[in-house]
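Duplicate of earlier report; Acyl carrier protein, putative input re-posted below.
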Amino acid sequence: MDSVFKDKVIEIIAEVLELENDEVGLDDALVDDLGADSLDIVDLSFSLGKTFKIQMPQKSVIAHALEVADEDSVFVVNERLTAKGAELLQLSPFKYSAENVTEGVSLTEVYLSTSVSNWANVCFAIKESGLPGEDVIHHYVSTFCEQLKAVA
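Output:
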């Protein structure tokens, strides 16, 4: 992904959150650092989709995983990520960092720490694929689950 794409994501996030572009960094968490609320996230998803002519996913990677997996406890136990849940998110189109997303982190903490870079990554993956975001995430999760079964 080139810097022009990243800069456009930063510009859109700044606009939605009524900030200056230089107040938004790639490593900033939308909620924890930039103060976004749930309505801002919806607005952001719409704005990114419109700008990049993509369909953003409506459900999270974990929501898809819980639908696809044979057993829920593979990825989440007591609302906290398992090692496989952390790996699922780190390798996902969002490309969560191993620093922020580890075994034992709560799903709320994942949401609160989702960064500008994570949003840029998923937008880029969807744009490159030419598919709707739901399909991109579902395909990724299905492939990940199939690989888990093959190893087991």
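The longest helix spans residues 133-151.

Merging into the original ticket.
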